[in-house]
């Protein structure tokens, strides 16, 4: 009887819920078949730089198949979180248009690493489906590999016979070629034949001839791969020493089968989200499950897309994927915001609300979702604000471009903000087509993906060479590979001569006796000498060179930590090591040879290598401190992400993104208090080496997004107070063994690096103690200065100089010797700003008095007399230095009966005013002539006639900005010319 969607009950059998289906799979393989359960790896792989997301269940076991890692367990099973949004498996652009494509999905799998093989794998799979899940055999088909003449591989008769022995009839066992039934990891690497189990949703009579024809109701359910070969670089196939089994069954597809649904979106993996959208968007028509032309307004497609993307976003954010660093995730987030606003009429908060439903549904399986729910919410809120700002800023410019080309409406500027500069660039060159080279520029320079470039080409009505872009991308990848492969001539020679790699295992060795750290000196031998990138046999004194030793206890720059310094003591000379460099595990010690006797250092010389112990200890303090800071930031601010770090002996620097309110002075104080409390508690800092599988099993590990970690010997640094975990990070750097040895902790600089990122610089130990001491001293100094303001208000130059000196002292940089904690610095700057305001306020209150006093003083003692025995005044108003607004009118009123010229200078701006009583005016002398021919001429500024006044009696000069370094000279010149003019013309 044919399967009829309409006859299926809307109520799911309690035994067939998604949760139970998943649990039955795990119980069967773990309890009944002796497999070890392994938790899902994070969505972004830690050890594989070749993929942006984990896109298959086997990703975390990849290096076991290649032979680069020994398996911790021989038989494992798990449910792996997977994302497919790019590359070979790009489902992003068709999600929602059908019932089975997803950006996020779960892959159920069981693996054998050299344990069982074909017989057991097929038996367990068949029993799982038929005996545990109770699927009817009449709806199942199996495929197997029919062989390949070119590869010299025969038909996989063994698998065929296994299926026969399990009761599968021959008319349901179908052979396929290399495209369908031969799995390969890549162009080179492990591979092998596979066998697939397909399920027929219709229940019709035998449909074997339709298997692998792409029918939506006859789908692949389970793929079982027998990894037994290796694809060589020449394309040939050879046998592997061990045989492995890799299986994968799409959980969403399995659930649809067991719940009698054609569409995955009709299962309880998605139905709860569709109902949640309906609940939160009451004004929207309910979901009807329509596809294609029936879904004429794309409403149901939007339901499915938002439901799918909500799962993907929640899973990614829970695993610490940062949208800032992953444009595909950011694009999906913005798609969700756009759907929420434009389709579901929810301006804010819908995606955040849906993430709660996802966590409720999947949190019991992937516990990181429940643990990181606040982080998920925080980043969604942050990205929604970024989206809104972008929309407000970019939309108006995009609207202008739309007026010129209506076809651009098919593009979403919020999906790809760089469309605006990309479109403008294309408008300049006006291409007849988008060739591969131009497409690569759009990809590389403007960050447009192939899908967006194609839509842009359609809008411009020009062809787009997609194959050309693929070719350019391959070329770019090849160039990167070539750059990695290129070796220096020195390295080539070292490898050609088979010189052993440097043994640097001693770099972590030290002994702590009471409170002292002891770093053991080691005897070393000079294997090679490098000078100007050439190998030489000997080197003389005072010549910069590099020494390759047989072993070293020096740390090479890595993970943000700079290299050690130190020396090598030879019989008659000392080699000062200023830095070390790792050249493909050959460690070069770079520096200068010093010798009083003119001694030349030769190959095979032996000496004693010692590190600069104080410098190393300072580095260790700072590195442990940066771990505490990273951890404390997460506690204080929630969703944070380390961008980069630098650790030296003098300071540490952490650049970190904070997805929420920016750090303020109170936050800095809290961070310093928390970290200094941890230092005072003297908590052990432990280091241990673990493999990647153990690493994946740990919770609360702080990692750097995008960082690639080794499969083996991952150094894990933990700071743990009893059961209370303070910090846990993988790190190759050097650390103190107890937080108490850090001594003290201070943040001395905070700088914004954009919307979300802040750069923090800090110091520890004695430098921190000094910074704190300086902070107390400068605070007291400002308090003392504040008390002296009132009695020195008549000395503006002195007060201004004092404020400037204190400000300069406070704003010292990281490299300066005078360090102050940043929170003290901020408070002091605020106090100085208040003092400056106070000085100006006092000046305003007493302004008239001071102007009157200064001008009266001039009248009393500084009136000048011309050759014709007439009195006049030319005066620079000194009180103007501390004033915001200079009352020149009041200054000249004090001197009503004689000619007066007054000049002021405030905030780098000069002003001037002159008044001439009527009885002093003549054909050669008046206010406007006096100003125009003297002061205004010197400062090259026009006259400004006072409205309603006679310009011959009163004249102002328009204010003019003058650099402080030019002021004294110009002032003297202006006053001299004013004096000469009045002497000759009055």
Would you mind describing this structure in some detail?
With 986 residues, this protein is α+β, with helices and mostly antiparallel strands. The protein folds into seven domains: 13-269, Bira Bifunctional Protein, Domain 2 (BirA Bifunctional Protein, domain 2), CATH 3.30.930.10; 281-404, no CATH class; 410-475; 492-611, Elongation Factor Tu (Ef-tu), domain 3; 620-763, Threonyl-tRNA Synthetase, Chain A, domain 2 (2-Layer Sandwich), CATH 3.30.980; 770-845; 851-985, Diaminopimelate Epimerase, Chain A, domain 1 (Roll). It is 38% helix and 22% strand. The protein is built from 28 helices and 35 strands. Strands 1, 2, 5, 6, 7, 8, 9, 10 and 11 form a nine-stranded mixed sheet that branches. Strands 14-17-20-19-18-22 form a six-stranded antiparallel β-barrel. Strands 30-31-32-33-35-34 form a six-stranded mixed sheet. Helix 8 (299-318) packs across helix 10 (350-362) and helix 21 runs parallel beside helix 23 (822-845). The longest helix is centred in the middle third of the chain and has 32 residues, at 373-404. It is globular and about 135 Å long. Residues 1-11 and 483-487 have low confidence and may be disordered.
């Amino acid at each position: 009887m044919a399967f009829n969607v309409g006859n299926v009950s809307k109520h799911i059998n309690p035994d067939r819920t998604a949760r139970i289906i998943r649990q039955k799979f795990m119980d069967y393989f773990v309890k009944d078949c002796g497999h070890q359960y392994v938790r899902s790896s994070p969505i972004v792989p830690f050890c594989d730089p070749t993929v942006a997301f984990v896109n298959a269940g086997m990703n975390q076991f990849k290096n076991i198949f290649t032979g680069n890692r020994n398996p911790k367990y021989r038989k494992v099973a798990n449910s792996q979180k997977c994302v497919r949004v790019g590359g070979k498996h790009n489902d992003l652009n068709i999600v929602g248009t059908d019932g089975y494509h997803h950006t996020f999905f779960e892959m159920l799998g069981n693996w054998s690493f050299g344990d069982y093989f074909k017989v057991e794998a097929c038996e367990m799979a068949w029993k799982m489906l038929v005996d545990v899940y109770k699927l009817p055999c009449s709806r199942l088909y199996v495929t197997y590999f029919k062989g390949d003449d070119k590869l010299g591989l025969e038909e996989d008769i063994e698998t065929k016979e296994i299926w026969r022995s399990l009761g599968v009839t021959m008319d349901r066992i179908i052979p396929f070629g290399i495209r369908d039934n031969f799995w390969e990891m890549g162009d080179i690497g492990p591979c092998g034949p596979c066998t697939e189990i397909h399920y027929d949703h219709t229940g019709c009579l035998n449909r074997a001839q339709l298997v692998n024809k792409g029918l939506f109701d006859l789908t692949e359910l389970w793929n079982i791969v027998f990894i037994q070969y290796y694809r060589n670089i020449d394309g040939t196939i050879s046998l592997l020493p061990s045989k492995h089994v890799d299986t994968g069954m799409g959980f969403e597809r399995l659930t649809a089968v067991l719940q009698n649904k054609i569409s995955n979106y009709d299962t309880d993996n998605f139905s709860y989200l569709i109902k949640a959208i309906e609940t939160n968007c009451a004004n929207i028509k309910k979901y009807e499950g329509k596809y294609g032309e029936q879904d004429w307004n794309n409403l149901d497609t939007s339901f499915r897309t938002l439901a799918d993307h909500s799962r993907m976003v929640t899973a990614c954010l829970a695993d610490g994927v940062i949208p800032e660093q992953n444009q595909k995730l950011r694009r999906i987030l913005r798609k969700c915001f756009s759907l929420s606003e434009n389709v579901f009429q929810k301006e804010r908060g819908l995606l955040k609300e849906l993430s709660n439903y996802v966590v409720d549904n999947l949190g019991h399986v992937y516990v990181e979702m429940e643990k990181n729910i606040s982080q998920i919410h925080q980043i969604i809120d942050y990205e929604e604000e970024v989206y809104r700002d972008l929309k407000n800023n970019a939309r108006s410019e995009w609207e202008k471009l739309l007026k010129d080309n209506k076809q651009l409406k098919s593009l979403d500027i919020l999906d790809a903000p760089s469309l605006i500069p990309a479109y403008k660039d294309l408008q300049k060159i006006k291409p007849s087509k988008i060739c591969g080279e131009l497409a690569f520029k759009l990809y590389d320079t403007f960050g447009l993906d192939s899908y967006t470039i194609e839509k842009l080409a359609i809008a411009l009505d020009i062809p787009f060479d997609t194959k050309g872009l693929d070719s350019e991308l391959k070329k770019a990848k090849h160039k990167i590979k070539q750059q990695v492969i290129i070796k220096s001539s020195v390295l080539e020679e070292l490898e050609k001569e088979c010189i052993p790699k440097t043994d640097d295992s001693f770099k972590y060795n030290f002994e702590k006796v009471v409170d002292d750290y002891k770093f053991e000196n080691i005897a070393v031998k000079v294997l090679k000498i490098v000078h100007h990138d050439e190998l030489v046999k000997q080197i003389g004194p005072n010549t910069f060179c590099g020494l390759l030793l047989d072993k070293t206890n020096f740390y090479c720059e890595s993970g943000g930590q700079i290299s050690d310094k130190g020396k090598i003591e030879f019989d008659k000379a000392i080699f000062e090591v200023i830095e070390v460099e790792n050249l493909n595990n050959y460690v070069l010690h770079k520096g200068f040879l010093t010798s009083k006797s003119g001694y030349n250092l030769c190959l095979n010389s032996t000496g004693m290598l010692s590190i600069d112990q104080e410098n190393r200890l300072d580095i260790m303090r700072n590195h442990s401190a940066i771990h505490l800071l990273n951890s404390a930031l997460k506690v204080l601010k929630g969703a944070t992400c380390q961008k980069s770090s630098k650790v030296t002996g003098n300071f540490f620097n952490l650049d970190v993104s904070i997805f929420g309110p920016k750090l303020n002075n109170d936050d800095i104080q809290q961070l310093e208090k928390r970290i200094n409390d941890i230092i005072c508690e003297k908590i052990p800092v432990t280091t241990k080496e673990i493999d990647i599988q153990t690493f994946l099993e740990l919770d609360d590990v702080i990692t750097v997004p995008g960082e690639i970690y080794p499969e083996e010997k991952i150094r894990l640094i933990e700071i743990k107070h009893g059961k209370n975990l303070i910090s846990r990070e993988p790190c190759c750097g050097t650390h103190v063994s107890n937080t108490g040895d850090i001594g003290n902790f201070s943040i001395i600089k905070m700088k914004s690096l954009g919307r979300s990122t802040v750069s923090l610089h800090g110091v520890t130990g004695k430098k921190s103690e000094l910074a704190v001491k300086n902070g107390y001293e400068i605070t007291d100094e400002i308090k003392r200065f504040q008390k002296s303001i009132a009695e020195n208000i008549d000395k503006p130059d002195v007060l201004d100089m004092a404020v400037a000196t204190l400000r300069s002292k406070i704003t010292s940089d990281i490299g300066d010797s005078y360090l102050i904690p940043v929170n003290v610095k901020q408070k002091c700057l605020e106090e100085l700003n208040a003092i400056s305001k106070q000085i100006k306020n006092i000046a305003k209150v007493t302004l008239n008095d001071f102007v009157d006093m200064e001008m009266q003083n001039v009248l009393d003692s500084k009136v000048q007399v011309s050759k014709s025995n007439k009195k006049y005044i030319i005066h620079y108003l000194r009180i103007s230095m501390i004033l915001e607004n200079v009352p020149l009118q009041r200054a000249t009123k004090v001197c009503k009966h004689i000619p007066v010229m007054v000049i002021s200078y405030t905030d780098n701006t000069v002003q001037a005013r002159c008044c001439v009583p009527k009885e002093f005016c003549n054909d050669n002398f008046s206010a406007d002539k006096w100003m125009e021919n003297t002061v205004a001429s010197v400062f090259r500024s026009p006259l400004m006639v006072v409205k309603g006044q006679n310009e011959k009696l009163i004249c102002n000069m328009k204010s003019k900005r003058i650099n402080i370094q030019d002021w004294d000279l110009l002032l003297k010149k202006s006053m001299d010319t004013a004096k000469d003019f009045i002497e000759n013309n009055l």
